[in-house]
Structures are given as structure tokens and as C-alpha cells.
Amino acid sequence: MIHVSYRGGGPVMSDLLGGQVQVFFGTTSLTVEQVTAGKLRALAVTSATRWEGLPDIPTVAEYLPGYEVSGWFGIGAPRNTPADIIEKLNKEINAALADPKMKPRLADFGGTLLPGSPADFGKLVADDTEKWGKVIRAANIKAD
Which among 53, 73, 110, 142 is most buried, taking Cβ atoms within 10 Å? Predict the structure, then answer.
């Protein structure tokens, strides 16, 4: 395979749907509509578990044990933000995530809710930093 860089989802989806590109590792939010419409064939998801929005699509790990690549979004604050402000923000964010309308809305875009504490988020960041640091060192990747 040859890696081809694109400037955004629109151009790559155009080429994929037009047959100029045969394989694409894309985000669920970019591809799910085309998959459910039958315009694209999903081969696998890169998350650790099957996505409930497309439960018949296997994970890459079912073919390559241990493989897992997931993106996530989080909310951060400056290092010296007072603890009471962090607690208030966390409480309100978790309350928003608990809204029954939130899960199906995010699921439409391939998202999964990850409510938790600031410590939980810190652990996620630290674990991903360690994971990808190992990959970078093993592949001897250097910044240009």
C-alpha cells in the first residue's frame, strides 16, 4: 500500500467513493453514513471492541490480537486552575454526558461516552502517551 495524505475528509471520501482510493483508515464519524447507506464496505473497526452502531463489523484485533487505535476528545484546563473549578466543570460535564439524548446523538457520529473524574482522564492521557511513545521509539520516528 502507498500512503496518500489528504487535506481533510471531503477530498478523501470523494476519491474513495469515486474509486481512486481502494482503502481508507477513517474515523467512524466520517464513514458511518456511507457504510450504512451501502456505499462503502467497512472491513473492521480499530477500537478494542466492536462498535454498537455497526455490531457486525469486526475489530482489527480479531485478526491481529492486541491491535487497538482509538481517538478521543477531552476537556482540559490550565495547570493552576483551582480544584473547586475543576470539580464543578467535571460535575457539569458528567451531568451533560448522562443526559439520555447525549448517547444516541454521539453514537450517530460513532462516539462513545467516557464519563469520569479528572484523575480518570489524566490516566487516559498518561496511558496513551506511554503507548504511543513506545510505538514512536520502536519505529524510530523522528520529527521533521
Answer: 110
Sequence-separated (6 or more) residues with CB below 8 Å from residue 103: 113
Q: How far is CA 57 from CA 1, 4, 68, in A?
A: 22, 25, 15
Gap between the Cα atoms of 100 and 105, Å rounded: 9
Q: C-alpha grid cell for residue 99?
A: 443526559
User: For the segment 64-88, what is each residue's pLDDT rounded down to a tens digit?
Assistant: 999 999 888 899 999 999 999 999 9
> How many residues in total does the chain contain?
144
Cross-strand partners of 59: 45
What's the predicted TM-score (pTM) here? Answer: 0.76
- Look at residues 60, 83, 81, 78 and name the one whose alpha carbon lies nearest to residue 70: 60
Per-residue pLDDT averaged across 21-40, rounded? 90
Alpha helices in 37-117 (DSSP H): 83-98, 102-107
Predicted confidence at residue 59, as pLDDT, reads 95
- State the pLDDT confidence band at 131, using cuts at 50, 70 and 90: very high
Grid cell, residue 37, equals: 447507506
